[in-house]
Amino acid sequence: MPRLQFTPWKEPAELLSVRSQFYPSTAATGEPADMRAKACSLVWVWKLRGNLPHTVEATALLTDAILHDDATKNSIFSIRATYSAAFCRFVTGLVDSKLYGKKQTMFQKAMELGLPASFVELRHEATHRELPSLIVLRNAAHQSLGWLWEFYWAGLDDAGIMDAGNDVPNESNGGLEFTKDAIRQTLKTLMSGENGLSESSGKRRSLRKVESSPELESIALVCSQQQEGAQAVAQVLLEQGFMILASRTIRSSIEPTFSTWDGVLKELCRHHTTFLTTLSGELARVLGDGDSPSLGDDPYKEAIYLWFDHILNSDTWSATRRLYFSTCYVDAVCHNETGYWTSRLRSLLDQYSSDLDTDVPMGTSRYGVSETRPNNDVFAGRKDGSPADMDTDSNLLRSYGWEVNGGWKYKPIGAV
C-alpha cells in the first residue's frame, strides 16, 4: 500500500519554483528580479498549513534576516538579533535530540548530519553569551544557506520531489551502502596499477598526479554533493585495506601508510572544508566502539590512535590542522568514555589543547596583542614611565593590521 505524505505545497513544481527564488541560477541572462521576499512570504503560508520541513523554514528565516540587513532602516542591534534568532533556530531544529530521534549531544547529532562544529559553537555563543558580531553572523548565514543547498535543495528533482518532506536522509533503500560501494571501487582504482597509490607498488604515482586524478575528484564530489557523503567516505577509508593495512600487527610502524594517504586526505580537506572534522569524528567513534581497559593489544585500534597522533602532532598536517580541525566532535565522542583507547585519546587531546595555549611568542597573547609583563619594573626604562619595549609593541600591533595613532600614555592599573 503506498505511503501517503502530506505536504504544504500543492504540487512539486511549486517547491522547485521556491527553490529557484531562494537560489537564483547564475546561468540566467540579464539581471534576474529578486524574488526572495516573495519566496519567504509563501513559506509563511506553508507554515500555517503544517508539515513544513525544517530545512525549508530555516532557509526562509535566514534569507529574511539577510533581506533585513539594512542599517538605514534598522539598528545594528536589531539586525544582529534577527540574524542570531534565524541562525539559532536553524541549528537547534537540526541537532536538538529532544525534538526527535535518539538522545545525543548536539555535537554528536551534528556529526551525523555533517553539520560543521562551528555552527553548534556559534549557536551556543548567540544563545548564552553576547550576540556575535555582525560580520560573523553574516558569514554564518551565507554558509548556512550553502549547507542547506547541499543538504536539501540540491537533491530535489522532478522524480524524487515526493521525498522532500523528510529532513533526515532516507537510507531504507540502501542508498548509503550503494554510495559506499562506489567509493570503495573508486579508491581501489586510485590504488591499483603500477603507478597506483598502493604502498606495495614498486613505482607510486607522484603526489601531484594523485591530487589531480579523476578518482580523487569524484570522491571529493561525493563529499560535497551527497547527504552524509563525507561521513561515508571517512567510514570507507577506515576499513581495513585502505588507511589501515589488513595485515598489520601490534606495535608495527605505519609511517609508510602516512606518506601514502596524507596527500589524498589533505586534498579532500581542501575540497570539503569539514572533511577533517568528519574524519576525526569517525576515528574517535571507532576507538570508542566496544572499547574497554583490556583492549590495549588491538592492532586495528592502535593504528586508528596512531593516525590521530599523526594528524594532531605531525608538521605535515600543521597548515591543514590550523584551518580545518576542530576538537569539539572528538570531545563529544570521548565524553564519559573510560576505555583504554578513548582514555589515551583524551590525553592526546588535552596535550594538543595545552600546546595550543602555550604555542605563543613571549610577551604576546594568542591574538597578537601585547600582554602585561609580570615583573614589577615593567614600566621602567623611559622618563615618561612607558615600557622600554614600546616600539616593539607598536610594531607588533601594526603587523597584525592595527594602526597606532598619537602617543601612548602608560600608567599602572589604578593610577590617575
Quick one: biggest sheet? Answer: none
Overall mean pLDDT stands at 75
Radius of gyration: 26 Å
- Poorly predicted segments: 158-162, 168-174, 199-208, 360-389
H-E string:
HHHHHHHHHHHHHHHHHH
Number of DSSP-assigned strands: 0
SS element count, helices: 18
Q: Count structural domains.
A: 3
Shape: globular
The N- to C-terminal Cα distance equals 83 Å
Based on secondary structure, the structural category is: mainly alpha
Helix content: 55-70%
Strand fraction:
under 5%
A few lines on this structure:
The protein is mainly alpha-helical and 416 residues long.
Task: Explain this structure.
Helix 2 runs antiparallel to helix 3 and helix 13 packs antiparallel against helix 14 (299-313). The chain has 18 helices and no strands. It folds into three domains: 12-163, no CATH class; 175-358; 363-416, no CATH class. With 416 residues, it is mainly alpha-helical. Helix content is 55%, strand content 0%. The chain has helices spanning 12-22, 36-49, 54-67, 76-95, 106-113, 117-128, 134-151, 175-191, 207-211, 214-225, 229-237, 255-271, 275-288, 299-313, 318-324, 328-334, 340-358, 390-399. Residues 365-387 are annotated as: Disordered. This is Cell morphogenesis protein Las1. One of its GO terms (molecular function) is endonuclease activity.
Question: What topology emerges from the helices and strands here?
Answer:
Elements: H1 12-22, H2 36-49, H3 54-67, H4 76-95, H5 106-113, H6 117-128, H7 134-151, H8 175-191, H9 207-211, H10 214-225, H11 229-237, H12 255-271, H13 275-288, H14 299-313, H15 318-324, H16 328-334, H17 340-358, H18 390-399
